[in-house]
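Problem: given the chain below (181 residues), write out its structure.
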Amino acid sequence: MQSYKEFKKGYLNEWVEKSQAARKAAEELAMKDSTSLSDRYKEEGLIFTLGGHKVELKGENEKNSDGDIYFTWDEAIKRFGEADKDGWRLPTKEELNDLCNYPYKFKDKQGVFDNRLYLPAEGWYDCTGDVYRAGFNGYYWSSTSSSWYNAWELYFKSDEVSVDQTLQHESISVRLVRDIK
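Solution.
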């Protein structure tokens, strides 16, 4: 008959072996999953259904020829109003409205949409050369004007996200989209 000490030692050895096997299987599964998620991100990017169709949002804000991140609406339209050779363009007002319907939070001075899309709260740059509300508010142009002097923008802060009108001569950020076929 086996003593309790021998039984306990055998049981512990078996438990350790099973635990190590389980850990190894979990690590292999995690590596497989992270690889497939990484491949999926490369394939799909930041995909959202906006304006009734699937679009990919670019991962970073655009910069102007000075390396700056602010554009007047006219500058943004001239440069991004039509899709470029790769299909990147300014989002429409309707697309930005739909983005507002995704779960939103403000975290680390960024607007976070559906825990995937991070838009920095860059504030705006006015004609006097000053940047206002950086780190507190985010503003992003749409391709849609609302009058001869206003255009639609995505606006967010800590407790609010909306699509609103702003003066076309203000300089704010640009994040491009492209249609997914």
